[in-house]
Amino acid sequence: MEMNNNRLKELLHKYLEGSASEQEVREVDDWYRSFDTHAGLTDQLTASEKDTLEQLLLLRIRTAISEAAPARVVRMRTRHWVAAAVVAAVLGIGGYYAVQRMHPAPQAIALTETSNRSGIRRISLPDSSVVWLNFDSKVHFSQAGIHAAREVWLEGEGYFEVRPQDNNAFTVHAGKLDVQVLGTSFNVDAYSPARAVTVTVVNGKVAVGAGAGRTTLTANQQAVFTTATGGITTQAITAADCSAWTTGQLVFRKATFQDIAMRLERRYNTHIRFGSPEVANALLTASFEEREPLTGVLGKLCAIYGFKYKEEANATYVVYK
By the 8 A CB rule, do 96 and 52 touch? Predict the structure, then answer.
């Protein structure tokens, strides 16, 4: 797809800020998919250099930070690297990574990615901190020693138990939000970073910030960062509810049926649609054990308001009034 730099720059900024319309999102996706035939542009790089450069650029673009972000050490198709390089050039962040003199930074190569497509996964980090990854989530972290800088990049949802280290903070990057702690337990929900990121503290204290906005949370407090406005709001909450998923439970308190559906879709690998906005926006409070089947969960949720549901083709359910 041919597109001039001004138009591409406008679309990419909207895409990163979460303000792009459906049509504009489709334009970016079409442009991104058009890079299958550009393999020749990367011939001068070794396989290791391609991996390192593409991941540095993609991760930097995704999190929209001003300094170089670490890499995922995973293989990707050539079009991803080419698209990342073009995006970097358009947005003015590619100078340092000029292809003619590219030498991967050791710290970039030392980073890895752990993902979790299904189930709940417990991961021990190099500093002995622990993170539980929820369904369809991933985390990027350094394999460096215990005294190295402690930073992770989260996509999806993770529950962290951070090992205390004097004068060595632990930082979680989730979309445009940064969470910094010395030692504590907290949950980060970054499934929809273009819309919002939620941080809930179980114990200890964390600093939450994005740009100039900063706030501090203690046990049973929650911060919600709204990406579109850049604002951070806080509220008191029962933090244990937000980490119940680490034991397989589903706990919802005054959550919309739409938000609940997104969690059910990830857990049960299904699709849920609604017959009307009234049904989608209904507020529900309920909890379910790990082995509860989807039909049982939907049946109990529907019973609260007298809703109904039906199963359609391709593992799709429709909830209606």
Answer: no
Q: What is the pLDDT of residue 3?
A: 60
Q: What is the mean pLDDT of residues 68-96?
A: 43
Q: What is the mean pLDDT of the chain?
A: 75
Query: What is the pLDDT at residue 51?
Result: 45
Q: How many residues does the chain have?
A: 321
Q: Which domains does the chain have, with CATH numbers?
A: 35-108 (no CATH), 113-240 (2.60.120.1440), 249-320 (3.55.50.30)
